[in-house]
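haha ok so turns out i had the wrong file open the whole time. this is the CORRECT one, sorry everyone. sequence first:
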Amino acid sequence: AQLADKILELLGWPGRVYFSSSGSEANEVAFKVARQYHLQSGKPGGATRYKIISRHRAYHGNTLGAMSATGQAERKIGYGPMAPGFIHVPPPYPYRAHPKLTPAEHGIACAQAIEETIIYEGPETVAAVLMEPIISGGGVLVPPDEYLPRVREICDEYGVLLIFDEVVSGYGRTGEMFGHDHWEVKPDIITMAKGLSSGYMPLAATAVQAYIFDAFMGEAGDLSHFRHINTFGGHPVSTAVGLHNLQIVEEEGLVEKARSVGDYALAQLKNLSSHPWVGEARGRGLLLGVELVADKETKQPLDDADVLAVLGRCKQAGVILGRNGNTVPGLGNILIMAPPLVATESDVDLLIEALVFALGEK
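then structure:
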């Protein structure tokens, strides 16, 4: 109860929290809550709302529902068929937007794609829109400022719930307590995991607004309660660790530190833009990405062998980096950096030195 209260305090709205053990589980809980909420809301069409709209390139987990929501094709090879009712739309990707569109216009166009999909599928069939405020593993895609507010408006207009997957971006990673705080847009449901315990114990959570929970307050025996259990959900050791972890995050000012060190890191990464392989450096806080291209004019992704060579040389220099991988065929060309929230500017300097060495002279 203490951890649930703390989570709601940080979110800034009344609600309820359901604990589980992983981000995948937290998202599965969110899907079930969204569908059952509509069924029991008493609103017209609620009984037929089951579809979840998510985005290409996004990662939401490896259980069947979460994998079905994931927008990375290669993660699904060998595991089909996927669960029905999951639909994907394009995410904002300013670097690869249509050249005639401003970032703001691109953001609105991507939000419009969600509205068009809701209309095409039939609003009475759509339960929720699911998204990471900033796509992380799919390439660190920071949306234009106009995007999330417009998505919130669209969801409200059509009675669709908005779910934010903050498994990666929650608890300071992006320089705000939650990724959606950058745009002051509130979700109906939010999922979280990694930063909730900083990895010291398996812990995840799904938080819902109070008006969502109210739909589950029926009479005993009428099956209106949330009929979901898991073996280790709400484990007292895990939740105690989570509570202490959040106290440390606040007491040591790690959110503010992630913001300031992240700003420094992004500025240093942007200084690499003169290199012919560096197409764009982007990010928020300590969630950062560098997109490598073979040609800056065409933005052709850098060849896979060259990307792997860069990663190998970084390792030689003492820095282990990841990339968005082959989850998006032909686009495994984005280096992804998520330093610990306690990272210093000196740590960033070491990262930059390794990247300079790895990229070499071209």
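The longest helix spans residues 103-121.
again sry for the mixup
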